[in-house]
Write a structure and sequence with these properties.
The chain folds into two domains: 130 residues, no CATH class; 169 residues, Intergrase catalytic core (hpI Integrase, Chain A). Helices cover 48% and strands 12% of the residues. It is built from 15 helices and seven strands. The chain has a three-stranded antiparallel β-sheet, with no helix packed on it. Strand 3 and strand 4 form a beta hairpin. The model has no long low-confidence stretch (mean pLDDT 86).
Amino acid sequence: MIFCIANKIKANNKTKYYISRTADAGILEEPTKYLIHKTRCNCSPNTVQRIAYALAYYHCFLYEQSLTIGTVLKMKYAKQQSHFYDFLLWIKAGNHSHRQKVPSNNTCNSYLQEVFGYYVFLLTEYNPDGDIKVLIEKRINCSGPSGVRFIRNLKTFRGYLSAEDSVGRSIPEENIKILLNATGNIRNKLLILILAETGLRIGEVLGINYLEDIDHDHHTIRVTFRDDNANNSRAKNAEERSAKISPETYTILMIYISRYRHLLEKTDYLFINLSGENKGKPMNRNGVYSMLKLLSNKTGISVTPHMLRHYYANARRKAGWPIERISKALGQKHIKTTEVYLHIEDTELVAAMEQYYKDNSALYDISKIT
């Protein structure tokens, strides 16, 4: 039996999440209060949605185990360790969902991480008896965008499932060109080009205000944080920065604005629906993914906005950009996240090694062999 579920409501162009019981639709106060707190901290709607699902799953698990938050806090270390590990296994077994697909270890771990964040909030907000004893403080060395080293204290759990390699896919430049040639829609061409040339997240691109965010003198697009976009798009982490597009893409941008001025003048958003019942309204994520899916079916080339973001990162790496600059351009807080984006193929490594041996003397002079 499902004890509770995550829900969302939209009011004043803002999406809010809450947890409710399935039996009587009553709202669970504590997890809902935490979701409100995360929304007020300017977490993106997608982040808050992920937290909402994690908390709903965890409260269902508590219900099945006949446990409460209070009893977990009062558990001794070993029992508390087993409790959270059992939750990971419960998720891994698919008990949280009716889907047949088994979640990855990384997904299971991410749900538990959100649960720990919830517990930290409860301990701070309500000061209940007990504690989360299984969180171990760990000191790690970090490097900031300027290369300055510093130490961070983190609390971690030693019972997470074994991490799996999570390297996002990129897309070759020749495949991007095929996709561009396959669509006759200038809006779709512009959308793909901006994603590939700027490395912006899809939410950042969909939030572009063509009246305020485009610098026509310098051909740059300003990423601006707004929390009231009609399509729920926003800059992650309230990150604001600028990205430059090529002269050719700027020309396509001007043609697009001119061609659809009769629709654009009714909105501030750059990317809008061009047909159907939502004609003239801002595009949302589902619209973008549907468009890319149709292109994939037409060309046989798999593509997502995130693959274009990976392409941007790798193209800049091959052009000699330092990782700190790439990280800043991507709007990422941690260099470690950027490293995941940078795929170095074996063939590229071999070519680099061959070039090194051509440019540098060998360790040993073979002529000395008699």
